[in-house]
Write a structure and sequence with these properties.
heterodimer, A: mainly alpha, MetI-like fold, 12 helices, B: about 350 residues, alpha/beta, Rossmann fold, 2 domains, eight-stranded mixed sheet
Chain lengths: ~300, ~350
């Protein structure tokens, strides 16, 4: 039915088809190589990736790497400096700081990752919903404004006071604190993408609203969302440390970085190692995540290739 | 020939802070099977709104109100639910936009987007849809369709992208293609190629085309019939030859005179229609073109003329269409001579 050049056309595309899967593979391979090259070319993001990977490895294999139990007290060895036995020294209860820092990484990464992922997902859903419905938009965005009006640490402390000191509650309150930013980002990006001609073109093709939202708008706003999620990951680690430092975070014996800092604060002049090592770990992890986020941002933009 | 689309007294009103604005005001016309219909007019005359109203693309909940009737074959499109409308868009009536560069979703490959149209409307497996999509790419004259299928829009040139858009629009073999300034964003040689492609598709697939443009030269070359719009109304309609031969409405004449000619002396100022299209909330009482019309009389300023036939194939909305009072026709002749 497609007219005169049908037979000639048929030949062209049968030939093309035999070659198709091969070509697709080759193209994907090329794309991947270009992207990899681009990523490795950016030294900062490679450094970020290395740091984050190192921290993850240390956290995952903490029981194998650390020689001591992070909770085992030994009053005879209180506030001992760096030694072959205690690489990062011991704290005021004689616990091994190295073990505590490694186990602390587990807590920080769990909190950060969960908060980034969940607040990103919930923010996406809320933002998308707000972008489609005017009334919901008004209500949701005013709630977000309200949440953003309160300093985030203060809000998190308040929530912890209400919910009680528990790692689960730290995660919940940090998610609540971070949702408004993610929702606003998702909403603003969705509103921009919604006005693009290709969305109108998709409507002209008969795509349903739902399909347009999930299959066409979401992939277009995903890259800024993922980048923002890495930043939320990083900031959640900092806020968690701050909460623990203030005594409103992970409850005491657990070795979170904030907890170690808090205990180290009283003995800062005699036992500098209690402050230095968790501090350095926190700073490096956050720096690494931010650099990684920048790298991911460059990587995710299809037009920058 | 059978009618594909019939529009009766279509009004499209937008809700704004300053009240309802009528962007399309009582437009009636029909599109026949296999024909090419041109719609011309300045920016803001309602040609795009008319075409988008046919597919009901505006948000009806809060933004727009349609009245009148749009019939596709025997189906009244304005009476359909949104769900039913979705099965019309793309399958029976398709649209190609002005800006090919931004009409394709940047995160999907070209092939995905053609397949999308096919998978929405036709029961096909992915493999069949893919085959059909490559066939479409081939049909619209894209070389090496198997490779292009896997490429992203940013890897293609503007002309290629417009070809892909046309392939997307035609993927389900619609009976009517609305082309809204399909060549405006492209350079001149590519424009000609794309127009050739549209004409070719029109002939080969027997699909009716509504070509919206402000380029009269394109209309003269490609269309069978022509509608001239001004401020949301049709001011002149008819066969292309008739209108180009003897335009009856001063606005149409103005548009034709605005085309620069090669033999015009260098020092001559280019012709222009004085003034600009008024805003929709400042629509004149009488003839809408009266404030800009060189021949306007008191009658024009007070009373709106009706669109009426001057011959079997030509209609015009002007009080002086028959040269009543003599003056207009006389002046027009003088004007054409000068």
């Amino acid at each position: 039915m497609l007219g005169t050049n049908g037979s000639e056309g048929a030949m062209t595309y049968t030939a093309a088809q035999n070659d198709l899967s091969l070509q697709k593979k080759k193209l994907a391979q090329e794309q991947f190589e270009i992207r990899l090259k681009k990523f490795t070319h950016n030294r900062a993001s490679v450094f970020g990736l290395a740091v984050v990977t190192l921290v993850i490895v240390l956290a995952v294999f903490a029981p194998l790497i650390a020689l001591h139990d992070p909770l085992a007290m030994n009053t005879a060895d209180r506030l001992k400096g760096i030694s072959a036995e205690h690489w990062f020294g011991t704290d005021n209860m004689g616990r091994d700081v190295f073990a505590r820092v490694l186990y602390g990484a587990r807590i920080s990464l769990t909190v950060g990752f969960t908060v980034g992922l969940v607040s990103g997902f919930l923010g996406l859903v809320i933002g998308l919903y707000a972008s489609t419905n005017k009334l919901a938009d008004n209500i949701l965005m005013r709630v977000c404004d309200g949440l953003k009006a309160i300093p985030s640490t203060l809000l998190a402390i308040t929530m912890m006071a209400v919910l009680g000191a528990d790692i689960k509650n730290v995660i919940i309150s940090l998610i609540v604190v971070n949702i408004p930013n993610m929702a606003r980002l998702a909403r603003s990006q969705a509103l921009v993408v919604k006005e693009q001609t290709y969305i109108e073109a998709m409507r002209c093709l008969g795509s349903s609203q739902k399909r347009i939202l999930w299959a066409h708008i979401v992939p277009n706003i995903l890259s800024p969302m993922i980048v923002q999620m890495t930043f939320v990951f990083a900031s959640a680690i900092i806020t968690e440390a701050a909460l623990s430092f203030l005594g409103a975070g992970v409850p005491a014996p657990a070795p979170s970085w904030g907890n170690i800092l808090k205990e180290g604060k009283d003995v800062i002049y005699t036992a500098w190692w209690m402050i230095l090592f968790p501090g350095v770990f926190t700073a490096l992890t956050v720096l690494g995540l931010n650099l990684l986020g920048d790298g991911v941002r460059d990587l995710m933009d299809p037009k920058s290739n | 020939m059978e009618r594909v689309l019939q529009i009766e007294n279509l009004c499209t009103e937008f809700k704004t802070e300053r009240g309802m604005l009528k962007a399309v005001d009582g437009v009636s016309f029909e599109v026949r099977e296999g024909e090419m219909l041109g719609i011309v007019g300045e920016s803001g005359c309602g040609k795009s709104v008319t075409s988008q109203s046919i597919l009901r693309l505006y948000d009806e909940k809060s933004f727009v109100r349609y009245t009148g009737d749009v019939r596709f074959h025997d189906e009244s499109l304005l009476a359909l639910s949104e769900k039913q409308m979705e099965s019309v868009r793309g399958a029976k009536i398709s649209m190609v936009f002005q800006d090919a560069l931004s009409s394709l979703n940047p995160v999907f490959t070209v092939g995905d987007q053609i397949m999308e149209a096919i998978l929405i409307h036709q029961k096909r497996t992915k493999a069949e849809a893919k085959e059909q999509a490559i066939e479409m790419l081939n049909l619209v004259g894209i070389p090496d369709p198997g490779r292009r299928f896997h490429q992203y829009p940013f890897e293609l040139s503007g002309g290629m992208r417009q070809r892909v858009m046309i392939a997307v629009a035609l993927a389900c073999h619609p009976q009517l293609l609305i082309a809204d300034e399909p060549t405006t964003a492209l350079d001149v040689t590519i424009q000609a190629q794309i127009m050739d492609l549209i004409v070719d598709m029109n002939k080969r697939l027997g699909m009716a085309v509504m070509l919206i443009t402000h380029d009269l030269a394109v209309v003269a070359e490609t269309c069978d019939r022509l509608i001239v719009m001004y401020l949301g109304q049709i001011v002149e309609e008819g066969r292309v030859e008739d209108i180009f031969d003897h335009p009856m409405h001063p606005y149409t004449m103005g548009l034709m005179n605005s085309i620069p000619k090669l033999d015009t002396a260098k020092a001559t100022r280019l012709y222009q229609i004085n003034g600009t299209v008024p805003l929709l909330n400042q629509i004149p009482v009488g003839c809408r073109f009266a404030p800009r019309c060189p021949y306007a009389t008191d009658l024009c300023r007070e009373e709106m003329p009706e669109l009426s036939q001057v011959s079997e194939t030509q209609g015009v909305r002007c009080h002086y269409r028959n040269g009543r009072n003599g003056g207009f026709v006389q002046e027009r002749l003088e004007y054409e001579a000068g």
